[in-house]
Automatic annotation (TrEMBL):
Domain called ABC transmembrane type-1: residue spans: 18-299
Principal location listed in the UniProt entry: membrane
Presence of keyword Metal-binding: no
Subcellular localization, as worded in the UniProt entry: Cell inner membrane
Protein name according to UniProt: ABC transporter
ABC transporter domain span: 331-569
Length: 585
């Protein structure tokens, strides 16, 4: 475990210094116990020999002062180390995840990252100090006592050593069981956390269903499951813990009996017997505390394992001499294949080839699961194609520096995330140095200015967590305004007008049209709404991961194929929505 923790930290020097300080304290504590032997031997004689005890008392006093100084130093060093270790781990994690493919950031992996940064990193830093220090003491003090006892009385030292072969497997078994129990408890606690978040987010639905106070059945099941796991864990850990305690107590009883027999037989003097019993207590007492520490040590080991699992995720490959600038804003696919489940899985794309010339605007059309979003994500290099080549600016995206590639690509996703900040700051994320005039021009083109005019504090209105204070269409306008402000020459839009009301659909379509009007910008948009399609000069129709139609919107309508049928259904559905809205009082 120490080796795993050591390799986990980017700069483990602090951990080594803290461990060395704790080790020095533990060894010094054992040596001070050794000083008791000559002191007791001199003072417990029929005629106490203070002269013989004096030098040892001086040595013991100096050692005690040194121990006190080191102990005082260890406390603030420990607290500082705990905070610094946690901070270093968090920074190490954040630096690493910034190198991972964007496709790695699924809901599950985001939850793993949040847990590692907020919980595991802090727990590792804290437990490495508050538990690691006592664990070092509980190990080194008995080892030092054995060494001292060998110098005083080898028979008793051998008795101490005889405890180890029984205590070691007992503590290993207790540790293994505690690790399994801790893992099960963590999984059950994670289930409760997920259900608790769901409980909070779904309050309107739950209250409407009369379950606002009790929550869903899944919430109740998670609570019951955690209780069952906790009880089962206590039962499982009870026997190994008691076994180890029994071994330690049996060792003390054995030492007590043997020492008493040797004392009554005259083999040991009273002073020696008392000193050996003191050493026996200090040998066995730290061992007894190990069973109390083992649960925390295993919890730290599990946390280390979770953090190591994140840090072991391979980063996005970067060539040794990457392309640092996108040339012409051209996008081309050449026989591209990709499967989310890896080789042998059903392909999301299968032999897809097309070219989007510089300055073109292309609509990606097709049924759900056709591979449209996969096309967009491969261009932005959320992940790499399994076969074929995705080329941007005439070069394979794998030849580009990832940061340089994304600097010239703007992505407008269906699920827009806004930071809990002002509208203006959410736009300036794209280009912090933008002038006020550039900001307003982007907002006008994205039809965002009319939204800002309705907000209570205008540009200074905070949008709430994730943009919750704005509607879906308003969030989309902010996202498109960011793309305009960024001035990226390649813009990828994923279902921006999906499930919007007609007014916002029209506004978002106008904003996409504003993106497409720039002759220096290449736009790919996943679209079905007629208003959005009207802004594009080319259409690619995908079905089952293949390109089945390609051409201008008018050409494909005239062809009477998939696109023509889809376009007709979309126009009918939109006409029906508009008629239904007109009939409303």
């Amino acid at each position: 475990m120490i080796r795993r923790l050591y390799t986990l930290l980017p700069r483990p020097g602090l951990l080594l210094r803290l461990g060395a300080l704790q080790a020095a304290l533990a060894v010094l504590q054992g040596l001070l116990l050794g000083v008791l032997v000559p002191v007791l031997d001199a003072l417990l004689r029929p005629e106490p020999d203070f002269g013989a005890a004096g030098p040892w008392l001086v040595i013991g006093g100096l050692g005690t002062v040194l121990y006190g100084v080191l102990a005082v130093l260890a406390t603030p060093v420990g607290f500082a180390a705990s905070m610094e270790l946690g901070a270093r781990l968090r920074h190490h994690l954040i630096r690493h995840v910034t190198t991972l493919p964007l496709g790695w950031f699924t809901a599950r992996n985001r939850a793993r990252l949040a847990r590692a940064v907020t919980s595991d990193a802090g727990a590792i830093g804290q437990l490495a100090v508050t538990t690691g220090g006592p664990a070092i003491t509980a190990t080194l003090v008995p080892a030092t006592v054995i060494a001292i006892t060998f110098a005083v009385d080898p028979t008793t030292a051998l008795l101490f050593l005889a405890v180890v072969p029984f205590a070691w497997p007992a503590i290993r078994r207790a540790g293994r069981v505690n690790a399994e129990v801790e893992t099960e408890l963590e999984e059950a606690a994670a289930g409760i956390a997920g259900r608790a978040v769901e409980f909070g987010q779904a309050q309107p639905v739950l209250r409407a269903a009369g379950q606002g106070g009790t929550g869903t059945a899944r919430m109740r099941d998670a609570l019951l499951a955690h209780r069952r796991v906790y009880r089962r864990g206590l039962r499982r850990a009870l026997v190994p813990d008691l076994t180890f305690t029994a071994v330690v107590m049996a060792g003390f009883v054995a030492v007590l009996i043997v020492t008493a027999l040797r004392l009554t037989s005259g083999e040991l003097a009273v002073a020696e017997a008392v000193a050996l019993l003191v050493l026996a207590v200090r040998f066995l007492e730290p061992l007894a505390t190990l069973v109390e520490l083992i649960g925390a040590l295993r919890a730290m080991d599990n946390a280390v394992g979770r953090v190591r699992a994140l840090l072991s995720v391979p980063p996005l490959p970067v060539p040794p001499d990457p392309v640092t600038a996108v040339g012409v804003p051209e996008v081309a696919f050449a026989s591209v294949g990709y499967a989310y489940g890896g080789p042998g899985s059903a392909p999301a794309l299968d032999g897809v080839s097309f070219t989007c010339p510089p300055g073109s605007s292309t609509a990606l059309v097709g049924p759900s699961g056709a591979g449209k979003s996969t096309v967009v994500r491969l261009i932005a290099r959320f992940f790499d194609a399994d076969t074929g080549s995705v080329r941007v600016g005439g070069r394979d995206v794998r030849d580009h520096d990832p940061a340089a590639l994304l600097a010239d690509i703007a992505v407008v996703l269906q699920d827009v995330y806004l930071f809990d900040d002002t509208v203006e700051e959410n736009l300036r994320i794209a280009r912090p140095d933008a002038t006020r005039a550039e900001l307003l021009a982007a907002a006008d083109a994205a039809r965002l200015t009319e939204v800002v005019a309705r907000l209570p504090d205008g540009w200074d209105t905070r949008v709430g967590e994730g943009g919750a204070r704005l509607s879906g269409g308003e969030r989309q306008r902010v996202s498109i305004a960011r793309a305009l402000l960024k001035r990226s020459r390649i813009v990828l839009v994923d279902e921006a007008a999906s499930a919007l009301d007609p007014e916002n659909e029209r506004a978002v379509a106008d904003a996409i049209a504003a993106l497409a009007r720039d002759p220096e910008r290449t736009v790919l948009v996943i679209a079905h709404a007629p208003a959005t399609l009207a802004a594009c000069d080319r259409v690619l129709v995908l079905d089952a991961g293949r390109v089945v139609e390609a051409g201008t919107p008018d050409e494909l309508r005239a062809a009477g194929g998939f696109f023509a049928r889809l376009d007709a259904r979309q126009r009918e559905a939109r006409a029906w929505r508009l008629a239904a809205r007109a009939r409303q009082p």
